[in-house]
Structures are given as structure tokens and as C-alpha cells.
Amino acid sequence: FVDHLYAALAQQGILTYKDDETLPRGERIGPTLLKAIQESRIALVVFSENYADSSWCLDELAHIMECADTKGQIVEPIFYFVDPSDVRKQKGKYGKAFRKHKRENKHKVGSWRKALEKAGNLSGWVIDENSHEAKCIKEIVGTISSRLPTLTTNVNKDLIGIETRLQDLKSKLKMGSGGVRIIGIWGVGGGGKTTLASAAYAEISHRFEAHCLLQNIREESNKHGLEKLQGKFLELILKTKNVVVESEIEGRS
User: Fold this and answer.
1) Does 53 lie in the same domain as 7?
2) Known catalytic residue: 250?
């Protein structure tokens, strides 16, 4: 599940850190992982049935919840075939794991319990035998995308009059109404048409499964042919490389 979730986040262009190493018994959480947690805007925690068996997982969680308190990091829990109340109150397999931890990690049990209680109280996703995992992953990725800051740069913000024009353009796009919309921006050369289109793209592109920004279409098609642009378009949309379009008709289809 985590592997599919990671792939979906990466495909959406979200820089995601996933640690694939396991910590040998008795070792402390690594500095690379600590740094990755501290520098992340959002932490996705996948609680599985045996999550609490791992002292490393619990160390990670404690650090994540500390970052949530001190840095305002967003924590999104996913309860994978686990009842959130078991996480919150350390019942079931979580209770069994903690009885063992009391003997082996007495000095950490308190902070681990506190972290689990906090995380278990957060609103998240519950995945069980009735869930469609692909649909859940799509929803999770959509939520993460919407919670990350947009790509709008400070340069765009500083341009006089850009905000008013941007809001006007976004209202014409009628986001969320369904269907396809084409907006034409007409005006003299150097009037800011491309700047406005780029600003709109930066602000709303994260809301779509796929997106691309093609510039200088007339010049590029005259120079290299429309097939080259069609290939570039498909590479960006499909997030792949070396798409060869043999003809305009093939590119359209």
C-alpha cells in the first residue's frame, strides 16, 4: 500500500521521502530520517496492525508529533486495517506491543503513548476490507496536493495589477463545474498575456491529475513541426520520456 501511495505522490510531482531501511534492534533513529521529518510540510503516518511492535516507528511518530507542535507540521494519519481507537488508547495488538515495551523501553513508553494518543485523535483515512485502495490513494493524493502551497511565485505577486487579472481569469475558468473550458487571452504583444497565463497555471495546476505549460507554440511548430510539440505535450501529461509522434493525426489521437 505504501509503495503504491508513494508512486502516486511522486507522479503528482510531490517531493516525497520514504525510508526503506529497517533499524537494527537497539539503534537510534538516523539523522537522515530526522532531517527528512523536520523539513517536511506534511507527514503521512500509515498505522498497520504491527506498527506499535517497532520501537523505530514509535520513535519516528514521537518526532513527527513534536514537529507538529513546534513547527506546525501537518500530520495525516492512515489507519490501515486498524481501528483508530486501538491506536488512541493502545488496545488490541497495540496494547500487547506496549506490554512488551514496558519491559524493554520503560523510559520511552510515556512519550510513545502521548504520540499515539495525539495521532489517533486526528482526522484521517480508515482503510479496511470494504475500502477500494486505488480510490483511497487518489483521494489522499488529492488532499495532500490541496494542502501544499501553490506554485505562485513572489515575482507574480509583486507585478502591479496581476492579482485582479488573475482572479478575473480564474472566475472565467469556473473551476469544479465539470466539462472542458478553453479561455483565449487576446491583446498586443508585450501586454502580459503569457505572464497572466503562467500565473494562472502556477496557481491551479496542482488541482489536476496531469498538466503542462506549452509556450511559443507558433514559433516552435514552424521551426520543428507540430509533431514535436505533440510529443512534448504527451511526455508532460503522461510523465514519461521519449514519446515519438510520427504524424499530426497520430498525435491528435
Assistant:
1) yes
2) no
Residue with cell 523536520: 38
Closest CA to 55 of 92, 29, 84, 19: 29
Same domain, 85 and 40: yes
- Residue numbers in the chain where pLDDT is lower than 50: 23, 26, 151-155
Residues 111 and 186 in one domain: no
H-helix segments, the chain: 2-11, 31-39, 55-71, 84-89, 92-104, 106-120, 133-147, 154-158, 162-173, 193-204, 217-224, 226-238, 248-252
From 21, 60, 76, 104, the catalytic residue: 60
Predicted structure pTM score: 0.65
Residue 253 in any domain: the answer is no
Query: Could you read off the pLDDT of 166-184 as tens digits, one per residue?
Result: 899 989 998 878 888 899 9
